[in-house]
Amino acid sequence: MMKKKGEIDLGLGLPRASAVNRSTAWPSSRRPRHHPRRETTDGHDKVPFPKDRKIPYGEISQFSKRSKQMPREGSEKVVYMGKVGVKLAVGCAVAACVVASVMVGRRVRRKRAWRRVVRVLEEFEEGCATPVGRLRQVVDAMAVEMHAGLVSEGGSKLKMLLTFVHNLPSGSEKGTYYALDLGGTNFRILRVQLGGQRSAIIGHDVDRQPIPLHLMTGTSEELFDFIASSLKEFVEREESVSEHSKSERRELGFTFSFPVKQTSSSSGILIKWTKGFVIEDMVGRDVSECLQQAISRNGLDMQVNALINDTVGTLALGHYHDEDTVVAVIIGTGTNACYLERADAIIKCQGLLTTPGDMVVNMEWGNFWSSHLPRTSYDIDLDADSPNPNDQGFEKMISGMYLGDIVRRVILRMSEELGVFGPVSSKLHVPFILRTPLMAAMHEDDTPDLREVARILRDTLEFPDIPLNVRKLVVKVCDVVTRRAARLAAAGIIGILKKIGRDGSGGIARGKNEAASRSKMRRTVVAVEGGLYTNYTLFREYLNEAMSQILGEEIAPSVIIKVMEDGSGIGAALLAASHSTSSVDTIQIPYM
Ligand code: BGC
């Protein structure tokens, strides 16, 4: 039978069924060799011992009795040897009984343990279930929370942050701009050349570097000095091979992918860290100012003229290529979304903005919460052990930073309680040791004997010899975790579409206009960036499948997901370019 996607036959058989079956038969090598019948003098085997006969345990003593009654001819030696033979036979029979019962006991225990393992998995799967009905509840909850977050500061767990980006790049941007993209495990420096005509990005160069771990928890000065000196090296390298006139002002768009309360399109205050960064002295400070000071300290002449979230950069690039792009989503180390909102819907700053029209709103959806989200005990433990408990609940179910660790926790539970993995490896206790790319590699292992799964379990978690059906179990755990994440992300996206009336349901206040709105569904493009979506095929397939299920066949074709490679960085350069010519709107909002 063909396996469906994500369908894995776990069976209820024992890990080593063949070994166990053997135990119920009496192996020929263990048959008593000194049975009396071999000692008879008439040359006949009076009591034939069928070669392949399995002797029921009750028959063993009868067989011995019968042997004693056999006529004996010849010397006492024969009688004596007969007695010895009988004793030996009885001894062997007893030993065989003991071995058999030990093996049967082991078999029963293994079978029970395996059933418990399967039960743990079933419970986990039930806890993670995302039927379409539940996803629709998440859609509604997302739309309602968005509204609440736009009405008042703190009105929702969704911060719905203003970005002061009113105009997305028009295509007329021209010149060379730099961008710095900081937000995940790597940071990127880009130099983008814009030709002045739509879709005319002449070229861009990128330098990617991992952020040294100690800088993620050090001081703001250390982090920004490291970034600024890398930026300086990059600029010098680039400009040594391309012309740069001394009079040209270098301008930079800074993508800073953490929750920031913007005070203008080029400045803002860090609200909190996410994704494992903990640099206390930075919270509450102006991010652009910190970078600008570090740039000056490093002797570089460059102006930070756009401060954006990565979602906003992705939206900017998406919109640059296709004007129907109104939503952008990041699904990578962290997760978040932004979209273009009508100014009059942003109730919390009515009358305070000087520029009319739409504005991009950074939702910070990683912090979304709803009682409809399927949460398991593993999620609760992961949250409790994280540096930001009760925070970023949606992100902890969806993003690349966490998925591998949820899988690790489920494997640990199975391993500890049920012993199917053998002795518990100490590595399994190490948080985040099973990174999401490794988890994806196990999930997508298509070798018949799941060789890649075995390799990762051996090399990363130090489980030397995991039988195939346990490997299948691990793949199933990965599948459950990824499927839930992808489907919840899909529900989140459709929640945004619902808020802006592009899901075909007539928006939050659905009703009699529903049919009409279905008929005039506009083409809507959602720009997506982030390794989880772009590099993980099964994640992508699950997300796309859920989008179609929720939207329905009629509406789904009008919603298009487009991947924007390097969108967050190139978008920052585009916004730096558009802000260098347009007027800038500012507002004073007291810091919460
Ligand atoms: C941050 C967001 C960011 C997202 C994706 C989240 O942890 O709070 O600002 O957009 O990660 O990088």
TrEMBL record:
Segments passing through the bilayer: 84-105
Entry EC number(s): 2.7.1.-
GO molecular function: ATP binding; D-glucose binding; hexokinase activity
Database matches in PANTHER family: HEXOKINASE (PTHR19443), HEXOKINASE-4 (PTHR19443:SF6)
EC main group: transferase
Amino acid composition bias (Basic and acidic residues), ranges on this chain: 38-51
Family: Belongs to the hexokinase family.
Keywords carried by this UniProt record: ATP-binding, Glycolysis, Kinase, Membrane, Nucleotide-binding, Transferase, Transmembrane, Transmembrane helix
Native organism: Fraxinus pennsylvanica
Region (Disordered): 1-51
A single GO cellular-component term on record: cytosol
Domain Hexokinase C-terminal: 327-577
Gene Ontology biological-process annotations: glycolytic process; intracellular glucose homeostasis
CDD domains linked to this entry: ASKHA_NBD_HK_plant
Protein name per UniProt: Phosphotransferase
